[in-house]
Design brief:
about 160 residues, alpha/beta, Rossmann fold, 5-stranded parallel β-sheet, globular, about 15% strand, binds 5-O-phosphono-beta-D-ribofuranose, 6 helices
């Protein structure tokens, strides 16, 4: 069995419809990954262990999504040198601006690479993780190059009414 190279983690089951976008692109690009619910507030011990063990388990990037008081990405970053990519999940009360601010304003020394709010951010988070893994995986790098070329080719040169 292939060991996961990327962790896709989220604060709640309710984050999964958003974070599935990260999982989907990792799947499409053939990057081994795992998915976990790891809440900074509801399961802090699980979060602690996940951060402490991430590097030794061979994870090369973690995509962490959370909403509201979104402390998961930052707290994970405080426990591991594995790059953490934060995804602000869109909330009903404040539209995800709360999540964004909670994730993006990290203190000096503990960075979180913060993506856009919502599904696009989650998709880009998965893509960013794949690009990190590709730094040491030429076959994956070639798959990403092909994926990017296909995306570019799918964009029409002129707009239409359709
Ligand atoms: C955060 O609280 C989670 O990341 C989620 O976005 C939000 C709401 O969680 P639920 O009440 O839906 O479980 O910790």
């Amino acid at each position: 069995m292939t060991e996961p190279r990327v962790g896709v983690v989220m604060g709640s089951q309710s984050d999964w419809p958003t974070m599935k976008e990260a999982a989907n692109i990792l799947e499409e690009l053939g990057v081994p990954f795992e998915t976990r619910i790891v809440s900074a507030h509801r399961t802090p011990d699980r979060m602690w262990s996940y951060g402490i063990e991430a590097a030794d388990r061979g994870l090369q990037a973690i995509v962490a999504g959370a909403g509201g008081a979104a402390h998961l990405p930052g707290m994970l970053a405080s426990k591991t040198r594995v790059p953490v990519i934060g995804v602000p999940v869109q909330t009903r009360a404040l539209s995800g601006v709360d999540s964004l601010y909670s994730i993006v304003q990290m203190p000096r020394g503990f960075p979180v690479a913060t993506m856009a709010i919502g599904a696009s951010g989650a998709m880009n988070g998965g893509l960013m993780a794949a690009q990190i893994v590709a730094l040491s995986d030429p076959a994956l790098a070639a798959r990403i190059d092909t994926w990017r070329k296909e995306l570019a080719a799918s964009i029409p040169e002129e707009p239409s009414d359709e």
